[in-house]
């Protein structure tokens, strides 16, 4: 930091706020700390009595906070997002489309561990809508060594830390199991719930079957939907371990790869997730337990966005739901702005 004549300050960085007071009109900040003095700023500075200023000396290898913020944006932003204007070393990332937010968590941790810089984001693997704020970045000090920003680029790697997988246009087939539904003994209250949730992602239902508890027919109905072009098949009910619950076995009989039968999530512990290879297509098959029919939020709400974005879900990711997998059934549901699934 050094003191220089105001007329000589062009291109230098202010070390303190400059206050302007106009009687009965204004009292506030004229220029903020970190502002780079421009030629047109000189008259205004002199008008508030600032004939001398304390400024940072521009040295080789030292970056202003706004220059360094550009680096944070560069390593953070992927496709389908844009940055806000830079202000005081800060840039925000804004979504340009609807989709699922993906985060390279290892890279995020490495950058935040360097010190003097930060990136704060919302949770990954959750839906994001166009216009949503994804993350905020900031350089902590007024100036920072260029070599530190070079290190940030190095630890972040070649891929951006954040990316968005846009939702795909899909159509679903629903296989409603249970002899009680097939025989008309009870009203099907499961399918309306599924349709409502699918509508959130503009996913039409191409058809519904009611094979009862016939294991072979359940398998046939699933395969028939796939043959007809379904991008997603949902089997509702029949997911417990009772002898007459045939859905898990029927899904297995399709030849699909079972990712998991069971999830550390309440409600939704009896989830089954599988993927069926149909030539070059991969079709998700979901076996949903009865809780999806009556609980406000369940495991279905955690995995559906990823299914709709063609984001493959691994068994270890399902296992990781154990922490945060307990829905508290709050009187006023604020999901996804809560801890469920996080």
TrEMBL record:
Keyword Transcription: no
EC numbers for this chain: 2.10.1.1
Annotated MoaB/Mog domain residues: 173-309
Cytoplasm is among the record's keywords: no
Keywords noted in UniProt: Magnesium, Metal-binding, Molybdenum, Molybdenum cofactor biosynthesis, Transferase
Cofactor: Mg(2+)
Pathway annotation from the record: Cofactor biosynthesis; molybdopterin biosynthesis
SMART domains xref list: MoCF_biosynth
Catalytic activity: adenylyl-molybdopterin + molybdate = Mo-molybdopterin + AMP + H(+)
Enzyme class: transferase
SUPFAM superfamilies per the UniProt record, alphabetical: Molybdenum cofactor biosynthesis proteins (SSF53218)
Function: Catalyzes the insertion of molybdate into adenylated molybdopterin with the concomitant release of AMP.
Family per record: Belongs to the MoeA family.
Protein name: Molybdopterin molybdenumtransferase
């Amino acid at each position: 930091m050094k003191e220089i004549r105001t007329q000589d300050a062009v291109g230098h960085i202010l070390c303190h706020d400059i206050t302007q007071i106009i009687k009965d009109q204004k009292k506030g900040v004229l220029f903020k700390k970190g502002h780079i003095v421009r030629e047109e700023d000189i008259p205004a500075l002199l008008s508030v009595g600032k004939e001398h200023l304390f400024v940072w000396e521009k040295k080789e290898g030292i970056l202003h906070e706004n220059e360094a913020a550009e680096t944070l944006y560069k390593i953070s932003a992927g496709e389908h997002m844009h940055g806000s204007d830079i202000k005081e070393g800060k840039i925000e990332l804004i979504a340009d489309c609807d989709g699922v937010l993906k985060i390279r968590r290892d890279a995020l941790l490495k950058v935040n561990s360097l010190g003097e810089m930060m990136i704060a984001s919302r949770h990954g693997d959750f839906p994001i809508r166009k216009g949503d704020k994804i993350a905020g970045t900031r350089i902590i000090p007024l100036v920072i060594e260029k070599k530190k920003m070079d290190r940030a680029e190095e630890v972040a790697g070649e891929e951006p830390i954040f990316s968005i997988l846009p939702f795909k246009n899909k159509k679903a087939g629903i296989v409603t199991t249970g002899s009680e539904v097939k025989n008309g003994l009870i009203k099907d209250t499961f399918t309306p719930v599924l349709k409502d949730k699918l509508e959130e992602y503009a996913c039409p239902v191409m058809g519904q079957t009611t094979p009862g508890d016939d294991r072979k027919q359940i398998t046939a109905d699933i395969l028939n939907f796939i043959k007809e072009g379904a991008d997603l098949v949902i089997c509702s009910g029949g997911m417990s371990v009772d002898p007459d619950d045939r859905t898990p076995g029927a899904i297995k009989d399709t030849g699909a790869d079972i990712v998991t039968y069971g999830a550390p999530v309440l409600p939704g512990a009896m989830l089954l997730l599988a993927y069926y290879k149909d030539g070059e297509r991969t079709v998700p098959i979901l076996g949903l337990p009865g809780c999806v029919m009556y609980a406000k939020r369940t495991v279905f709400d955690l995995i559906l966005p990823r299914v709709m974005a063609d984001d493959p879900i691994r068994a270890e990711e399902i296992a990781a739901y154990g922490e945060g997998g307990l829905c508290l059934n709050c009187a006023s549901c604020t999901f996804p702005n809560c801890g469920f699934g996080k």
